[in-house]
Automatic annotation (TrEMBL):
Belongs to the Nudix hydrolase family. This is Nudix hydrolase domain-containing protein. The keyword Hydrolase applies. Residues 13-149 form the Nudix hydrolase domain. It comes from Herpetosiphon gulosus. The keyword Isomerase does not apply. Pfam families: NUDIX, WHD_NrtR. Keywords: Hydrolase.
Length: 240
């Protein structure tokens, strides 16, 4: 029988549940960290996990991601980007679950963390010192997010979200190196930045030990897609 609006029966088809997971990155003490919650209940009780949960029938994916993030960690009002959809059949022991992951890069000092009733703790972890045996497939999601974060440094102004309005080039270089997990050649890095026309000199100097560093700011008039700052060309060793 041909299906119509009158005879359509949704119960004829199996329906997977949909969740959202939110990977939040930030710099703490100069190191790249990720925000995680320790689960209180089955499944994976006592295991650390990426913040997230089930999508309600009356909310969009992004609404669900923002709600779950704030409920589980207290973090709110952040710009998030959709990362990927993870749907391996056995990824959740409760039922067939498809998860849409988001990620964001934030200034950690601007957010106060709070623990929800559904978790034991919420904490920042260095990305190279993660807890063992993360819940579900969250290690896979996290590694995917780290790779995406690093790749976006090449063609977006993502790293500038971690900076004050005025900053020195050495500080920006340290942020790139920490996220990338490798050292960059100083002369090449500075030259590529200046050639990209992303920055403007404020005319101010940073008071510090040794030679004062010039302070720069990001050109607000630049559209993010208008440039390609190729950090790979600023690596310490020439791969060519």
């Amino acid at each position: 029988m041909t299906e119509t609006a009158e005879n359509y029966d949704a119960t004829k088809y199996e329906r997977p549940s949909v969740t959202v997971d939110v990977v939040i990155f930030g710099l703490r003490s100069g190191r790249l960290h990720v925000l995680m919650v320790q689960r209180k209940h089955w499944p994976y009780a006592e295991h650390w996990a990426i913040p997230g949960g089930f999508v309600n029938m009356d909310e969009s994916l992004e609404m669900a991601a923002r709600r779950e993030l704030e409920e589980e960690t207290g973090v709110h009002d952040v710009y998030m980007e959709q990362l990927y959809t993870f749907g391996d059949p056995g990824r959740d022991p409760r039922t067939r679950v498809i998860s849409v992951a988001y990620f964001a890069l934030i200034r950690t000092e601007e957010q106060a963390l709070q623990v929800s009733d559904e978790s034991n703790d919420v904490c920042w972890f260095p990305v190279d010192e993660l807890p063992k045996d993360l819940a579900f497939d969250h290690e896979k999601i996290l590694r995917f997010a780290i790779d995406r974060l690093r790749s976006k440094l090449e063609y977006t102004t993502l790293a500038f979200q971690l900076l004050p309005k005025e900053f020195s080039l050495p500080k920006l270089k340290r942020i790139y190196e920490e996220i990338l997990g490798e050292q960059l050649d100083k002369a090449n890095f500075y030259r590529k930045l200046r050639d990209s026309d992303l920055l403007e000199d404020t005319g101010k100097l940073l008071n510090s030990r040794g030679r004062p560093a010039r302070l720069y700011r990001f050109r607000d008039s630049r559209i993010e897609g208008d440039f390609v700052f190729r950090y790979r060309e600023a690596k310490k060793k020439d791969e060519g």
